[in-house]
């Protein structure tokens, strides 16, 4: 799979640093960013908001039959992470020898997600590490 | 005077033992362990490279320093394993710590000493008033050709240092360098593994330059080996730094805390910087530290640091190097080849 350079570049704040947004009116935090707050509608006041990267495993699954992009990485774990700020984020859970369990604490790390072949771009992205 | 405001180190958790590599090549593990003074080395995960290692170390340094990353005016990353030939690792790292866009950044290469060259560059920029804080990083995922002696030591890791004038934990009171054109180790553009001059990497390369920069430093500062609480020398293996310390008149207890290569291998640009991070993890105010790096090709940078009171206030924020080293997971040679991308699937 090849990703257009501008496509991953546009998502860089989110994919490197978990930057979503927060409604200053009601306090709701969103990741990825929303254009309108679910609670406040046209009254919403959304501002960029960086998530801490801390959270816990809400659910997970082990991928043994991956897409072509990740075929060299299988088996790997995808987790549904409940972040400290509230939003649920899906992401890779890196193998650090610890058992993935529901409720396990995680933090984010920056890793290579995939590369566009030998000559193309390397795409970096957050992943989750069990603490 | 410029000094260290914060630091962070990162060592991947995978390890391969000398015994496991020696098993493949029918070599004597004991002979290699005695000859090189290394018992195992760190291996990066499949999704780790010099940029991710540098970014993790940099994030830890920013957390330790407790500064606003927008105040960082320069980011330099020293490595001999930058993920791209053209596209700066430093820009990726800066983005990952929330620095920029109003700052300068560049990648450096000088074998194992590019990270300490970066320290000197940001020191100059801080002392001249050009920037408030600068970040210098040494990070590598070094490669050793299968079956070559380097395969036992070439490992992965990195460290980041934030240099500034305010709230320092250690002031850098002097720096010296010693550089000549010496063909002891090289890798041509586009070639996967480095080549080296075997025994030529010793006397005329590592020892000549490490001793040259350190002696120059002792003359410049009027200090003697006995004046230092700690000394860190570049450590391509466990033997060279031990021998150079003895040749210069330093005692084994002065280099012990910063001697990490026997347990994680040679992290190249990261080596002397992770060694310094390990020393700062336990150094006390008033301690004096000598650091001399070495990079093939060849050159050495030497530094004298004076540890300040501020270190006690920030110490709790450090992810300790020796704790990181103890947190490990062993892999076998087949997984090692797959992890390093040596097995080509197409």
Description:
The complex is a heterodimer of chains A (131) and B (346). In chain A, 9% of the residues lie in helices and 42% in strands. Chain A is mainly β and 131 residues long. Chain A has a domain of 78 residues: OB fold (Dihydrolipoamide Acetyltransferase, E2P). A five-stranded antiparallel sheet of chain A has the order 6-5-4-7-8. In chain A, strands 2-1-3 form a three-stranded antiparallel sheet. The model of chain A has no long low-confidence stretch (mean pLDDT 95). With 346 residues, chain B is α/β, with parallel strands linked by helices. Chain B folds into two domains: 192 residues, Thiolase/Chalcone synthase (Peroxisomal Thiolase, Chain A, domain 1, 3-Layer(aba) Sandwich); 140 residues, Thiolase/Chalcone synthase (Peroxisomal Thiolase, Chain A, domain 1, 3-Layer(aba) Sandwich). Chain B is built from 13 helices and 14 strands. In chain B, helix 1 packs across helix 2, helix 3 crosses helix 4 and helix 6 packs across helix 7.
CATH class of the domain at 53-130 in chain A: Mainly Beta
Distance between the termini of chain A: 32 Å
Q: Overall pLDDT of chain A, averaged?
A: 95
Q: Give the C-alpha Rg of chain B.
A: 19 Å
CATH topology group of the domain at 53-130 in chain A: OB fold (Dihydrolipoamide Acetyltransferase, E2P)
SS elements, strand count of chain A: 8
What CATH first level of the largest domain in chain B would be assigned? Alpha Beta
Q: Percent range for helical residues of chain B? A: 25-40%
Blueprint (SSEs and pairs):
The complex is a heterodimer of chains A (131) and B (346).
Chain A: H1 5-10, H2 12-17, E1 19-23, E2 29-30, E3 46-50, E4 55-63, E5 76-83, E6 88-93, E7 105-115, E8 122-130
Antiparallel strand pairs in A: 1-2, 1-3, 4-5, 4-7, 5-6, 7-8
Chain B: E1 3-10, E2 14-17, H1 18-25, H2 29-36, E3 40-43, H3 50-65, E4 72-78, H4 89-96, E5 104-108, H5 114-127, E6 133-141, E7 156-164, E8 170-179, E9 185-186, E10 195-196, H6 202-221, E11 230-233, H7 239-248, H8 252-255, H9 261-264, H10 271-282, E12 288-292, E13 299-307, H11 310-314, H12 321-326, E14 329-330, H13 333-339
Parallel strand pairs in B: 2-14, 4-5, 4-6, 11-12
Antiparallel strand pairs in B: 1-7, 1-8, 2-3, 6-7, 8-13, 9-10, 12-13
